[in-house]
């Protein structure tokens, strides 16, 4: 396909932030783009067809995929971007709250991927891009459960890529750093907060607000998604932004003790 006809792309969580920027970037690059949101949008982004889809509902996922096939006949690219956050001490969340987080961030990706794979297999061609995070590479205080979902996506994606590569399908990871979106405004708080964590949790929230203000624009991540989507021989993972590249370097090449001390210093925790 030419640059003006890249193929058909589906971006979940495309109503705002990274998802919206990604849908728009893919559209500019020549894709016919479908985006999803949990609720109907008053106005869809220019050139993007928006569908209502709840990634925690298998029927909703399949309906969205079927709608795209009726309208476009194929799906060449899936960007699993929909996700939610959770900020709090690991023991401050009930198992029920943890399950809800995993239902969106991990099993939502699983549902979308399972619905798309038969389509791509029939085409003998397709690419799946899963949105991870630098927290898929490193731990972060008061992000234990969120980081766990991203570590799960890392392992799932890398394993799946080996399984479907001979079918003409590739699976790629994107690892953004801190991005200037409303993510932190909509982040979930623990459902059973405990007094021993109050002060440190408040400091973690303050730090998050500070670093988001100087974070990368969503378009930085979107540009990397386009690069990964079009690469003839894609890399397994792409970092997005300077901070993400630095974190990846630290994790891969420096001693664990140094990384541990650096993380605690950055998080403003006592050594």
TrEMBL record:
GO MF annotation terms: oxidoreductase activity
Top-level taxon of the source organism: Bacteria
Residue span, Ketoreductase domain: 7-199
Keywords: Oxidoreductase
Keyword RNA-binding: no
InterPro entries referenced in this protein's UniProt entry, alphabetically: KR_dom, NAD(P)-bd_dom_sf, SDR_fam, SDR_oxidoreductase
Keyword flag Oxidoreductase: yes
Gene3D superfamilies, per the entry: NAD(P)-binding Rossmann-like Domain
SMART domains according to UniProt: PKS_KR
PANTHER family for the chain: SHORT CHAIN DEHYDROGENASE (PTHR43976), SHORT-CHAIN DEHYDROGENASE_REDUCTASE FAMILY PROTEIN (PTHR43976:SF16)
Family the entry assigns: Belongs to the short-chain dehydrogenases/reductases (SDR) family.
Protein name: Short-chain dehydrogenase
Lineage, uppermost ranks: Bacteria, Pseudomonadati, Pseudomonadota, Alphaproteobacteria, Hyphomicrobiales
